Automatic annotation (TrEMBL), chain A:
This is Methionine biosynthesis protein MetW. InterPro entries: Methionine_synth_MetW, SAM-dependent_MTases_sf. NCBIfam families: metW. Signal peptide: none annotated. Transmembrane segments: none annotated. It comes from Cohaesibacter marisflavi. SUPFAM superfamilies: S-adenosyl-L-methionine-dependent methyltransferases.
Automatic annotation (TrEMBL), chain B:
Homodimer. Coiled coil: none annotated. Substrate binds at residues 243, 373. Pathway: Amino-acid biosynthesis; L-methionine biosynthesis via de novo pathway; O-acetyl-L-homoserine from L-homoserine: step 1/1. It is found in: Cytoplasm. It comes from Cohaesibacter marisflavi. It is an enzyme of class 2 (transferase). The gene is metXA. This is Homoserine O-acetyltransferase. Residues 14-25 have a biased composition (Basic and acidic residues). InterPro entries: AB_hydrolase_1, AB_hydrolase_fold, HAT_MetX-like. It catalyses: L-homoserine + acetyl-CoA = O-acetyl-L-homoserine + CoA. Residues 1-11 have a biased composition (Polar residues). SUPFAM superfamilies: alpha/beta-Hydrolases. Keywords: Acyltransferase, Amino-acid biosynthesis, Cytoplasm, Methionine biosynthesis, Transferase.
C-alpha cells in the first residue's frame, strides 16, 4: 500500500495500526454530523466516516494524487493546505474538524489549531509522539534523529517540520484555550493507553496520540 | 411563429468552408429551436430579443424520469458539435475525447446537450442572423449579449426539452462561466456542476487581450462598422490577428517552446525578411487563417465582450460566496498548472467562495504543460477526476432517491 508524502510517517507499512487510528477517530464522532478532514490523504478516513457514521464530509488534501483518489471515491475534497486554506472557512461551519497525522507538517501549528477550533465546534487531532521512548533512545544512545518504520524520513528530507511530544501538545492546548474532552494513546503494538494514565506515561509509551478538543467556554 | 419549432436541416450542398460556415450560421444542420414573440428573452443590456433561435446537438438518450441530462457548454469560439463532426470543418467534435460511449461523460448513461451560445455563429441567434425588423443581418444592432443572457436562453431550451433538473452542468473557460451562472442563478435545477479552467470574473489582463483582438477586427477596413455582410467581404486580416493574439494566451510558454522552439520554417538559413520565418509564426498564421473561414468576426466581438462583462460576485454585493449560499449542488473545480489565461488562483477564488457558502466542492489542479488548452486535450488525470466526480454524483443521486434503478433483491 503506497502512502504519500507527509502522512506516511506513522503508518509506513502498518496498515492495521492505521485502522486503529481511524477507528478511534470514528468513535469520537457522532453520526449524521458535518465534518472537515484536513489532510485527507487518499480519502480512506472520510470514506469510513461517510459509510459508518453517515457524516457529511469535506476534505482538504495537499497532493493531487490524493485529491484525485478522493474525488474518485465520491468525496468532496479540495486541493489545498492547512496553513493556507483554513482561513476561508467561516466560524462554526462544521461539527468536527479532523487533523489526522498532519499538524507536525504545518508551518504554524498553533494558528492551525486555532482555526480548527474556530471552524469546528470540536477538533480531533492525531499526531506521532516525539516523546516516545524509541525516539528518546535514538537520540540518547545513537545521537541521531530517529528514522524507523513509523518515522521513515531522514532529517533533511522530512516534510515534518514541527514534531512535538504529547506533553508539548497538552501545553499547546492550554495556550490556545482548548479543552481536552477525550484522548487516546496508541502503543507500538496497537494497544491503547487508558486516558487515566498520567501524561508522563503517555509521553513515553504512546507512538501516536489522538485528542478530541473543544473550545473552553 | 408562436410556439417553439424544431427542425432538422438537410445537407447544405455548398462548397467552400467559408460558405458552409455562413450557411450554418443562418441555417444550422444541427437541431434548433426558435422561440417566438410570446416568449421573448430579456437581456441584461436592456430590452428583449425576439424571436431568437438556439441551435443544439444531443448525444445519448433521455431516461424515463428525465434525470440523466447533462448540459455541456462550449468555450469562446466553440459550437454545439461537442461530440460529432463539425459540418463546417468536418473535424471531430471539440470534446469527442470526453463525451461518448464509455467516455468520462458517458453517453450510454447520460443525455448530453450542447447548444451554441447566443451571440455565436453556429446557428443560434447572433450578429450574422437576420434581423426581422430590417430583413438584414443584425450586425452591431444586436444588443450586447452577456453570459447570464446565454444561460437564460439555455433554460428555455432545457424547458423545451422537458427537463426540470440537470444531472450536471459542465464547461471549460467561457463554458465554465455559464456552468457557474447556472449553478448560482438556478440552484434548484442543477445537481452538480463541473467548472474547468475558468474564473468568476474576467481579469483586467483577460479584458486587455480581448480588447487587442477586437481592435484588430474593427481596424480592418473590410469590417465596415460591422456591416461587412452588405459588402460581400469579411474582415479576415483583423480577425486573424485577433485569433493569433488570443491563441498565444491559450498555450503555455513551455508548450510553445517544446513544440516550436526557435525552429525555422523552411530552411536552416535565416532569410532576413519579415516573412513567416519561424515555425511559431507560421503556426500562428495558420491558426488565424483557418479561424476566419469558420467564425464570424462580429460574433467574435460579442462573445469576447460577454466574457469581459462576466463578474458573478458583482450581482451578489461583491461577495462571491453569496452566489452559492444554500446551494445543494455538488461542485467540481478543475485547473491546470500551466494555464496563465485562467490560472489556478482564479479557480481557488471560486473554491474558497464555495467553501464559505458551505457547498460540497472538490477541487483538483491538474499537472499539465499544455496551458489553457489542456481542458480540450486528453489529460488522463483530468479525465479520471471528471469520471470519478460524475460517478459519485450518480451514486449520491441514487441515494437521494432520484433514480429508480436501485437493485431489487429477492
Amino acid at each position: 500500500m503506497s502512502k504519500p508524502d507527509k502522512k506516511a510517517l506513522i503508518v509506513g507499512g502498518r496498515a492495521d495500526n492505521t485502522r486503529i487510528d481511524f477507528e478511534l477517530v470514528a468513535d469520537m464522532i457522532n453520526p449524521n454530523t458535518k465534518i472537515l478532514d484536513v489532510g485527507s490523504d487518499d480519502g480512506a478516513l472520510l470514506e469510513l466516516l461517510r459509510d459508518s457514521r453517515n457524516v457529511e464530509g469535506r476534505g482538504i488534501e495537499l497532493s493531487q494524487k490524493g485529491v484525485n483518489k478522493c474525488v474518485a471515491r465520491g468525496l468532496s475534497v479540495i486541493q489545498g493546505d492547512a496553513d493556507e486554506d483554513l482561513i476561508y472557512y467561516p466560524d462554526d461551519s462544521f461539527d468536527y474538524v479532523i487533523l489526522s497525522q498532519t499538524i507536525q507538517a504545518t508551518r504554524n501549528p498553533k494558528l492551525v489549531l486555532e482555526h480548527l477550533l474556530r471552524i469546528g465546534r470540536k477538533a480531533i487531532v492525531s499526531f506521532p509522539n516525539f516523546g516516545h521512548w524509541r525516539v528518546r533512545s535514538d537520540l540518547l544512545f545513537r545521537g541521531t534523529m530517529p528514522v524507523n518504520d513509523y518515522l521513515p524520513y531522514s532529517w533533511y528530507d522530512t516534510p515534518n517540520i514541527h514534531f512535538c511530544t504529547v506533553r508539548d501538545f497538552v501545553n499547546l492546548c492550554r495556550e490556545t484555550n482548548a479543552e481536552i474532552e477525550k484522548a487516546h494513546g496508541i502503543q507500538g503494538d496497537g494497544e491503547r493507553i487508558s486516558f487515566s494514565a498520567p501524561w508522563w506515561f503517555w509521553n513515553l509509551f504512546a507512538e501516536q496520540a489522538i485528542f478530541l478538543l473543544s473550545r473552553k467556554r | 411563429m408562436n410556439s417553439p419549432t424544431d427542425k432538422n436541416n438537410p445537407e447544405t450542398g455548398v462548397k467552400s468552408r467559408e460558405e458552409r460556415a455562413h450557411h450554418e450560421a443562418l441555417s444550422p444542420s444541427s437541431r434548433s429551436v426558435t422561440f417566438g414573440p410570446d416568449t421573448p428573452l430579456k437581456l441584461d443590456a436592456g430590452g428583449e430579443l425576439s424571436p431568437f433561435t438556439i441551435a443544439y446537438e444531443t448525444y445519448g438518450s433521455l431516461n424515463e424520469d428525465h434525470s440523466n441530462a447533462i448540459l455541456v457548454f462550449h468555450a469562446l469560439t466553440g459550437d454545439q458539435y461537442a461530440a460529432s463532426p463539425s459540418p463546417v470543418t468536418g473535424k471531430p467534435g471539440w470534446w469527442s475525447t470526453m463525451i461518448g460511449p464509455g467516455k468520462p461523460i458517458d453517453t450510454e448513461r447520460y443525455f448530453v446537450i450542447c447548444s451554441n451560445v447566443l451571440g455565436g455563429c453556429s446557428g443560434s441567434t447572433g450578429p450574422a442572423s437576420i434581423n426581422p425588423a430590417t430583413d438584414k443581418p443584425y450586425g452591431l444592432d444586436l444588443p450586447v449579449i452577456t453570459v447570464p443572457d446565454m444561460v437564460r436562453a439555455q433554460t428555455m431550451l432545457v424547458d423545451y426539452l422537458g427537463i426540470d433538473k440537470l444531472f450536471s452542468v459542465i464547461g471549460g473557460s467561457m463554458g465554465g462561466m455559464q456552468a457557474m451562472q447556472w449553478a448560482a442563478a438556478y440552484p434548484e435545477r442543477v445537481n452538480s456542476a463541473i467548472l474547468i479552467a475558468t474564473a468568476s470574473h474576467h481579469s483586467s489582463q483577460n479584458i486587455a487581450f480581448y480588447e487587442v483582438g477586437r481592435q484588430a477586427v474593427m481596424a480592418d477596413l473590410d469590417w465596415h462598422g460591422g456591416r461587412y455582410y452588405d459588402y460581400d467581404v469579411t474582415p479576415k486580416k483583423g480577425l486573424a490577428v485577433a485569433r493569433m493574439a488570443a491563441h498565444v494566451t491559450y498555450m503555455s510558454e513551455q508548450s510553445l517552446q517544446n513544440k516550436f522552439g526557435r525552429n525555422l520554417q523552411n530552411s536552416t538559413e535565416k532569410g532576413f525578411s519579415f516573412d513567416a520565418e519561424f515555425e511559431i509564426e507560421s503556426y500562428l498564421h495558420h491558426q488565424g487563417m483557418t479561424f476566419v473561414d469558420r467564425f464570424d468576426a462580429n460574433s467574435y466581438l460579442y462573445v469576447t465582450r460577454a466574457m469581459d462583462y462576466f463578474d458573478l460576485a458583482a450581482s451578489y454585493d461583491g461577495q462571491l460566496a453569496k452566489a452559492f449560499m444554500g446551494t445543494k449542488a455538488r461542485f467540481c473545480v478543475v485547473s491546470f498548472t500551466s494555464d496563465w489565461h485562467f490560472p489556478t488562483s482564479a479557480s481557488r477564488t471560486i473554491v474558497h467562495a464555495l467553501n464559505a457558502a458551505g457547498a460540497s466542492v472538490s477541487f483538483v489542479e491538474i499537472d499539465s504543460d499544455k496551458g489553457h488548452d489542456a481542458f480540450l486535450l486528453e489529460e488522463p488525470e483530468f479525465f479520471d477526476a471528471i469520471n470519478g466526480f460524475l460517478h459519485a454524483a450518480d451514486r449520491s443521486n441514487d441515494q437521494s432517491g432520484n433514480h429508480d434503478d436501485t437493485e431489487e433483491r429477492s
